[in-house]
Amino acid sequence: MTKKALFRVTTLNLNGIRSAARKGLDAWLREHAQPDWLCVQEIKAAAPDLDAELRALGGLRGAFHHAERPGYSGVGLYWRHEPDAVRIGFGDAEFDAEGRYVEASYRLADGTRLTLVSVYFPSGSSSDERQQAKYRFLECFGEHLRSLRARGEVLLCGDVNIAHNEIDLKNWKGNLKNSGFLPEERAWMTELLDAHGWVDVFRALNPSPDQYTWWSNRGQARAKNVGWRIDYQLATPAVAALARRGSESIYTATRFSDHAPLSIDYALSL
Fold first, then answer.
1. Which of 98, 134, 244, 270 could be stapled to 124 by a disulfide with Cβ–Cβ 3.0 to 4.6 Å?
2. Burial of 215 per CB tally in 10 Å (0-12, 13-18, 19+)
3. Torsion of CA 108, 111, 114, 115, to 10 degrees
4. What span, in angstroms and rounded, lies between the C-alpha atoms of 244 and 220?
C-alpha cells in the first residue's frame, strides 16, 4: 500500500504580485506556510513583469495566465511537485482574455487523475455590465467544471467573489442586493455543492462564524473583522475526504493584500 503524505495547498488573492512581494510574501511562504501548491489570483502583471523571484515564490515553480489588459486580473499556480500537464485558460474566449485560469494535472499513486485549479471569478461590483459578465462566467464555468470532474478528481482554489451563506459575511443583511451575495450567485454555489456534490472544504472542516478572507479598505473593516469569505478550496468528495481537520488556516497576522491566505493540508499519495 502506498503511504499517504500531507500536502499543503494555499490560495491567496494578491491584489498585485509585486505589491505582495514587497510586503514579505516570499519569506512567509518559505519560513511559515511552506505550501506544496500555491494558487494566486489578481497578479496584475504581464509576463515581462515577473522576475526570477516572482516566478519562484516560496521556492516553488509556477505557471501563469496573464490578462490581455495591462495591470488587470491574472492568476498563477505554483508547485513543489512537477505536474504531468499544465493548462492555461479554460476555453472561453471572453474570460480567457482576462487571465482567470490555470490548472495542473497529476496522476496519483492509485492511478486516479487529480486536477488542481487556480481561478479568479469576475467581480460584478463595479457596474451592471460587469455583473452580467459574471453571470456569463458562472454559466460557462459551471459547464467546464462538469467536464473537468468527468475526467477525475478536482481541487479548485481561488477567489470566487461569492459569499455563499449568511455566515460567510459579517453584514449580510446590508448586502442582500450587492454583488457577491446576490440570490443568483448564491444559488449557483448551492447547486454546485448540493446538486453536483462539490465540497466547500474549509466550511466542512470549520463551521465557526467570523471566518473571513477579504475585507474592504474602508472604515477599519479589517481591524473590526467586518469581512467576507470569498476565497475557497472547492473539491470533489474524494479529495475533500483527504483534508486534515485542524489544518485549515486563514492567516491574518501579516497583511499581504486585502485578502488573507487560506491553507489546508490533504493526505495524498503522489
1. 134
2. buried
3. 120
4. 33
Q: Give the pLDDT of residue 3.
A: 63
Summarize pLDDT for 182-214 with one digit per residue, the tens. Answer: 999 999 999 999 999 999 999 999 999 999 999
Give the Å distances, CA to CA, from 249 to 138, 161, 182.
Answer: 27, 19, 27
Number of domains the chain contains: 1
Kindly report, residue by residue over 217-233, the tens digit of the pLDDT: 999 999 999 999 999 99
CA 68 vs. chain centroid, Å, equals: 21
The DSSP element (H or E) to which 95 belongs, if any, is: helix 93-96
Q: What is the CATH number of the domain that holds 238?
A: 3.60.10.10
Q: The C-alpha cell of 112 is what?
A: 486516479
> What's the pTM?
0.97
Terminal alpha carbon distance of the chain: 12
pLDDT value, residue 4:
83
Is 159 assigned a catalytic role?
yes
Say if CB 202 and CB 232 are below 8 A apart. Answer: yes
* Burial class of residue 2 (count of CB atoms within 10 Å of its CB; 0-12, 13-18, 19+): exposed
Residue 61 and residue 82: Cα distance in Å, rounded? 8
Host H or E run for residue 146? helix 128-150
HSE, CB side, 13 Å, CA atoms: give it for residue 130: 12
Interatomic CA distance for residues 47 and 189, integer angstroms: 32
Catalytic residue among 92, 159, 168, 265: 159
Backbone angles phi, psi at 235, to 5 degrees: -135, 155
Is 101:91 a contact under the CB 8 Å cutoff? no
Which element (helix H / strand E) includes 186?
A: helix 183-190
CB atoms within 10 A of CB 257: 20
pLDDT of residue 169: 98
Q: Domain residues for 118?
A: 5-268
